[in-house]
Each structure stands twice: as structure tokens, then as C-alpha cells.
What we know:
By secondary structure, this protein is an alpha/beta fold. It has 2 domains: 5-153 and 298-346, Quinone Oxidoreductase, Chain A, domain 1 (Alpha-Beta Complex), CATH 3.90.180; 155-294, 3-Layer(aba) Sandwich (Rossmann fold). Helix content is 27%, strand content 28%. The protein is built from 11 helices and 18 strands. The strands form 4 sheets. Strands 3, 5, 6, 9, 10, 17 and 18 form a 7-stranded mixed beta sheet that branches. It is globular, with a radius of gyration of 20 Å. The model has no long low-confidence stretch (mean pLDDT 97). Nicotinamide-8-iodo-adenine-dinucleotide is lined by residues 43-45, 48, 153, 157, 176-177, 179-183, 200-202, 206, 221, 247-250, 252-253, 270-272, 295-297, 334, 337, 339.
Amino acid sequence: AVVFGWWAQVAEKVGGPLVYKQIPVPKPGPDEILVKMRYSGVCHTDLHALNGDWPLPVKMPLVGGHEGAGHVVAKGELVKEFEIGDAAGIKWLNGSCLSCEFCRQTDESCCADAALSGYTVDGTFQQYAIGKAALASKISKGVPLDAAAPVLCAGITVYKGLKESGARPGETVAIVGAGGGLGSLAIQYARAMGLRVVGIDGGSEKQAMCKDLGAEAFVDFTQSKDLVADVKAATPGGLGAHAVILLAVSEKPFQQATEYVRSRGTVVAIGLPANAYLKAPVLNTVVRMITIKGSYVGNRQDGVEALDFFERGLIKAPFKTAPLKDLPKIFELMEQGKIAGRYVLEIPE
Ligand code: 8ID
Ligand code: ZN
């Protein structure tokens, strides 16, 4: 029975539209927390979910969102990790089985039974959201929840991707899609990890932002006549980037990256453009000993570490805030590639 309602952005079917309305109140299960949301970042993944971009079934009707920060207001009787009132984050990995081979090796993102916030279970574009306590993030007292929200997906994902790249302090990473949500955080994490950054994206606003965030060079993919040559020229000795972090929502750079990665370098695919393929010439890949890999969010420890960088003041990425009801407008801007950095939704009290 409906006790009372809370405000949510609900997609009734794939393709939308989004309906801003009140929905019934669920109770947290024995191992779950109920979090009163204060802020939720808007990730391009949320737009992929709404558009049905991926061959991965999505729950409908759906409350999207997976970068949610707020406070615990109720918890199940088994929950030991959180007290009522604690600041908490709900991430893409809403829950996982914790007992399969992947979970045992702390690759929770590979768990076949993982529950995904804003995809297979309702997410954070609402006043209250539920998550498994074991997978939810603890956020220290006094940390600003608006700036912390994007760390919960974008931050963790790029931090993990940079670790997976194997790039070491002093080496150069090319960040493709550097002006977007993940990209802006990737520049900051890369810098905090002692890496040098070449940003690749389009337009003067994103160029200025990337430079401010610490990119030593910027290549504008909308202007460059020879992107491969320009990226290589921006790396030490013109040898190419030690690692490439692919965050763009477009297939072309996924085909191009092995051309400007350095011999022995690593290409890390993170962005998830619809219907896209990775393709690389076999000869070039073999004789230059190039590694190509994927990276998908992060495990619980990656989450703790990524938040720790943020809480120590090392990660400052620009974001704009907007009320929850404006989500459709933000998706429109995102579709057009017009967002430099991240949008964070303010959830009504
Ligand atoms: O765990 C994961 N693998 C994971 C986690 C979170 C998000 C993957 N993602 C995926 C999202 O689903 C999405 O496909 O990463 C991608 C980027 O998410 P985002 O940062 O939230 O998207 P955005 O803010 O729209 O930024 C994308 C940027 O790419 C640029 C755009 O200009 C924009 O700034 N871009 C494009 I589109 N084409 C480009 C190109 N050819 C490009 N930049 C350089 N070269
Ligand atoms: Zn995300």
C-alpha cells in the first residue's frame, strides 16, 4: 500500500519521456540502507539507459541515477556499516552477490548478479534511494555532498581506469573526452597520481577548462587536420602517450587510439558509445606491443581510495547544479555535447 509519495524522475519506457512525479515508498531490506538524497550527478550512462543504447536489458519503469550522495535515514537489521544520519553514497554497483568467484576476488563489477543503480534497480534521481550497505560508500562528516556526488561514478571509474593503464608518475596519458564529466575528473586524478595529461575534446570552453584542470596540452578533435600527429607531437619526444583513456561517446577514437599510443603503451576503453567496436591493425599492435583493455567502474576499495583523494582536497572538478525537475534539459545539453564538466542535481528536501 502507498504510505506517502516522494518525488522522482521516472522513465516509463525506453526512449522516455521522463515524468516528474511522486512514487510509493519502499522499505530497505535487512542488508540495505535508505538514503535521503541531497545531490545526484548526471552521468552519460543515465542517458544511454534512457535511450536503450546497449544490448543489456534495462528495468522499466525506471528511476535513473547512480552518483547519489545524502544521509542514511533507515537501515535493515543486518546493517553494521552505517548509522542513521551518516553521509552515504549510492553508486552504479548497488549490490553484488559477494560470494561468486569475481566478488571473492573483489571484482564486484564482474559479478553476474550485480544490481545496477538506475539500470536494473531504481537509482538516485529521487528523494530517497536504496542500496546494499556493503556496496554503498561511506562519506566523511563535513564533506560537501554536491562536489562529492560525481566522484561516486565518474571519479571512481577514471581512478580505476588510470590504475588499470599501468601509467607511472611522470608518464603521459592522453584523455579522450577530457572536457566531459569523466574527463574533467580524469585530468584531476591523473595529476594527483603524478601523471602528465594531453586532453582531447572539442571547443574553446572545454579547452580552457582542461587547461585550468592541469592538462599540459589540448588537441581539439573538431579542428585538428591530423589528430594522430597532433597528439603525438604533444607527448615527450613525439613518441605518443604511455596510456590512452577513452571516455568519448563516439566510436572513432576507439579505432584511432592505438595510432597515438606509445610502443609498449596501453589503451583503456571506458566510454560506452552505442553499437561501437574496438578495431586495431594486428601488425601495429603486435610489433609495437600495445595493450588494449576495458575498465568498468571500480571495486569497494577503489571507491574508498577515490573518495580519499577527494576528501584530501586533491580533486577539484567544476560542476553546475540544477534542480531535479530540470533533468530533461540536462539530458538535452548532454546529447548535444554542450556540457563542460558535470551537472549535479539538487534533490528537493
Ligand atoms: O565503468 C565504465 N566503463 C563507465 C562508467 C561511467 C561512464 C563508463 N561510462 C561511460 C558513459 O556511459 C559514457 O559512454 O563513459 C562515457 C562518458 O561519460 P560522461 O563523461 O558522463 O559523458 P560526457 O560528459 O557526455 O562526456 C563525453 C565527452 O566526449 C567528448 C564530448 O565532447 C564530451 O565532452 N567527445 C565525443 I562525444 N567525441 C569525441 C572525440 N571524437 C570526444 N572527445 C574527443 N574525441
Ligand atoms: Zn556513471
